Amino acid sequence: MPEEMRRIVLASRPEAEAVPDNFRLEEADLPRPAEGEVLVRVTYLSLDPYMRGRMSAAKSYAPPVEIGGTMTGQGVGEVIESRSPRFAPGDRVLGITGWADHACLPAEALRKLDGTLAPELFLGVLGMPGFTGWVGLSEFGRPRQGETLAVAAATGPVGSMVGQLAKRKGLRAVGVAGGPEKSRIARETFGFDACIDHRAFTEAGALSAAIAEAAPDGIDIYFENVGGMVLDAVLPLLNDHARVPLCGTVAWYSGGAGGAQDRLPMLWRSILVRRLSVHGFIIFDHYDRYDAFLEEVAPMVEAGRIAHLEDVADGIESAPEAFVAMLKGGNTGKQLVRVG
Ligand SMILES: NC(=O)c1ccc[n+]([C@@H]2O[C@H](COP(=O)([O-])OP(=O)(O)OC[C@H]3O[C@@H](n4cnc5c(N)ncnc54)[C@H](OP(=O)(O)O)[C@@H]3O)[C@@H](O)[C@H]2O)c1
To answer: Which of 140, 223, 226, 328 most suits a substitution to test ligand 1, by most atoms within 8 Å of the C-beta?
Structure first.
């Protein structure tokens, strides 16, 4: 058993874009589990766009990480010491480990990962992001066969789940992704009918024309992952009674307009005259359905009927750079960090 652990703490709050200097790698004494706790050796960490929000002191749906505090996040790993009857050394678990190579957590905060699927899949396609796509599409997208769906960040773990589920339900799926290679992956790996490279456009009108060509019957579901210029381009294409599951606005997480113009009156008027349903949701409110999601989707992943892609950075020290790059599209697939 090691005597020390390594962790990444928040060194400073970003002014606008997050930079690697906002983080610091630290060593600390390895914690020992108290009664009811479990010590986990972390094998993979998840990097997710929501963590940019935790770096900011602005009021949100969850408290910020304190300066000097360990960055929050989910990880998977192996139990190396247990003071709970629920876990034994060698068990594979999922929990909020933070950006650290070891974590001491109460047993009830951990989920045991049985079965043959690789634990790291429970951070992506079978974890919070995949679950988010499943809940958002089924509950707030209310998909119907023959309709058209559009989603950006189409090769990420949320967007790729949304696109694949939409195709399975008989919709036309139009992706938006950054760059020709990601657009190819969206079509060939994830089965999107078309994918538009938003980085090839400098203004919303031209992007809108390209999306319109790929969605000749208009858009019935816009699964909102990004905001920014993509939202600006999609808004005029929404059909009457379109649904907008409002999942994320990553183009705006660092502040600024992210390529969008100020179209607040147009947005408000569109919601009225086209009778749009815009529904913001945070996945933490829906975890009572996580088992139902796993029951439905895990067999499809195991059988290769739902594709997934992971982008793995090596070593805990690589987390800050991988995270900063991910916010700007540097990842292709679910961004993970292989620890140790
Ligand atoms: N509501 C919830 O509970 C919940 C839960 C999970 C995730 N989310 C949100 O869902 C969204 C997707 O999450 P994810 O984990 O699947 O992320 P991801 O796709 O792995 O990574 C974010 C992606 O956003 C895209 N992006 C960044 N800036 C952009 C811009 N200006 N315009 C268009 N696209 C841009 C980039 O892809 P390209 O290179 O393809 O542009 C980047 O790879 C995020 O907004 C996230 O915050 C919400």
So the answer is: 226
CA of 156 to the centre of ligand 1 (A): 7
**How far is the C-alpha of 155 from the C-alpha of 232, rounded, in Å?**
20
Q: Between the CA atoms of 195, 198, 201 and 206, what dihedral angle is there, to the nearest 10 degrees?
A: 60
Q: Is residue 237 a contact partner of residue 211, using CB atoms and an 8 Å limit?
A: yes
DSSP class of 295: H
Q: Are 40 and 340 in contact (CB under 8 A)?
A: no
pLDDT band (50, 70, 90) for residue 258:
confident
- Domains in the chain, start-ordered, CATH in brackets? 4-123+310-338 (3.90.180.10), 128-283 (3.40.50.720)
CB 333 within 8 A of CB 156: yes
Helix (H) or strand (E) holding 227: none
pLDDT tens digits along 109-155: 999 998 899 999 999 999 999 999 999 999 999 999 999 999 999 99
Distance separating alpha carbons of residues 211 and 205, to the nearest angstrom = 10
Torsion sign across C-alpha atoms 2, 97, 76, 50:
negative
Look at residue 340 and tell me whether its pLDDT is greater than 80.
no
Q: What are phi and psi of 188, to 5 degrees?
A: -80, -35
Residue with token string 């929990």: 95
Asked whether 52 and 327 are in contact (CB, 8 A), the reply is: yes
